[in-house]
Amino acid sequence: MTTLYITGAGVSAQSGIPTFRGTDGFWTIGSKNYTPQEMATRAMYQTYPREFLIWYYHRFAQYRNHGPNEVHAWLADKQLITQNIDGLDGKAGNESYISIHGRLDQITLFHKQGDDVSRHVAPWHEVDETYLGDSLLSLFKIGTQGPELNQSFKPYVLLFDEYYTELYQIGLAEQQMRHASKIVFMGTSFSVNITQIALDIARQRSIPIEIVDPEPVHVLYDQVQYHQMSALEYINR
Q1: Secondary element (H or E) of residue 224
Q2: I need a surface site. Which of 117, 154, 175, 219 has the fewest CB within 10 A?
Q3: Which residues form the Deacetylase sirtuin-type domain (predicted)?
């Protein structure tokens, strides 16, 4: 039995990576504005691949060289599931963490969800920013007909209209939740499915939880301890 940590965007904010629902604003395609939650979808990738990849590049890939912070270092020897795709936990030395929503530094073939596919190094270093859209389409092997199954590439990221599969280690994540002696949620708004899955398992198995956040979300559970503070303040208590 061990403590399981589940982290969200608040943990990486100190490294200069904005939270997903923070100050992203809107993305305009044609005359229509889209929220980040509408942009980060499989449907958008298929319908507007150029705009999707440009948005993804600006929103995530530009932070690929940022470094981990003190919280990532503290979590390096912990059992960890992160919602973040920035890879900072790996940079900090955690060799077994689960990146439940994917990783910025990897891509996969565009595939039917649930298919067994390999992960490859993302070609961000090959991008020509002078011709950003064309360069991204070429690197991701997307032609005029849009992404082709098992031919084109897709960022290794779980999009809002996709579901958890073994590509994202959902089975191992649930196993770790069931065997945890305590679950600590750090810097998460509880607005994604993985936190709800963890909370449901905690309730079923009477696992105590802690919620660490400057503005902690209150949940319906009688074995919860709230820490109204940042993750950095929590680890330095």
Answers
A1: strand 224-227
A2: 175
A3: 1-237
Q: Helices in the chain by DSSP H: which ranges? A: 9-12, 36-39, 42-47, 49-59, 70-74, 88-91, 132-139, 170-178, 193-205, 231-235
pLDDT at 23 over 60: no
Structure tokens at 17: 């990576």
CATH 3.40.50.1220 boundaries in the chain = 1-17+68-101+163-236
Q: Is the pLDDT reported for residue 21 higher than 60?
A: no
How far, in Å, CA of 132 to CA of 143, rounded? 15
Superfamily of domain 1-17+68-101+163-236 in CATH is TPP-binding domain (3.40.50.1220)
Task: Compute the C-alpha angle 123/97/56, nearest 5°.
Answer: 35
Question: Residue 114: its pLDDT value, please?
Answer: 96
Residue type, 5: Y
Q: Which of 218, 217, 210 is nearest to 234 (CA)?
A: 210
Name every residue whose Cβ is closer than 8 Å to that of residue 67 and which is 6 or more positions away in sequence. 15, 88, 91
pLDDT confidence of residue 28:
67
